[in-house]
C-alpha cells in the first residue's frame, strides 16, 4: 500500500491537496466535490449546507445532498446531480485505486479535515429533483472508512451550527 502524504484529521485546503499530490500547478479552482489525480480520487464534503431561500429547493442552486456519517465507519454520499454510475464523473470515483474523504463542517471553514481513505461498499443509481423540479440521475454511494473516525471530530461535524453560533 502506497504511503499517503496526508495525516488523519489534519486540515488541508484544496490548494494543499493539489500541492501534496505534485500536480505541478495549483488545481484547487477545479477541485469541487470530486477530483481525480492519477490513481487517487478526493471527495470534498461540506457537512452542513446553507439553508435554501423560500421557493427554492436548494441554497444557491446547490442540491441538499445526503452526505452524512451513519456511524464512525460508514459515510453516505450523493454524487452531483446528473452524474449516475455510468457517467465519466462517477467512473473516475469508482475506478480509483485510492479514495480519500475530506470534510469541513460549513462554508465558513476554508480547510477540510482529512478523514482518511475509504472503500465503496455500494453505489446505486437514483434520482434527485433539481431546482427546476426536474428529476435527474445521481449515484447514492455508501463508503466504509479504512479507520474509524475519531469520536470528538465526528461529534463536532454532526453538531448543529446554529446552536454553536448562539453559544458564543
Q: Quick summary of this structure?
A:
With 168 residues, the protein is an alpha+beta fold. The protein is 18% helix and 33% strand. A hairpin with a 5-residue loop joins strand 7 (112-129) and strand 8 (135-145).
Summarize the helices and strands and which ones pair or pack.
Blueprint (H helix, E strand, L loop, with lengths): L10 E2 L1 H7 L13 E4 L2 E7 L21 E2 L4 E5 L9 H8 L2 E7 L7 E18 L5 E11 L5 H8 L2 H7 L1
Distance between the termini: 44 Å
Provide the succession of SSEs.
EHEEEEHEEEHH
The major sheet is characterized as:
8 strands, mixed
> Proportion of β residues?
25-35%
Report the C-alpha radius of gyration, rounded: 16 Å
Number of strands: 8
List unreliable stretches of 5+ residues.
52-62, 163-168
Mean pLDDT: 84
- Envelope shape: globular
- Which secondary-structure class do the elements indicate? alpha+beta
Helix content: 10-25%
What multimeric state do the chains show? single chain
Number of helices: 4
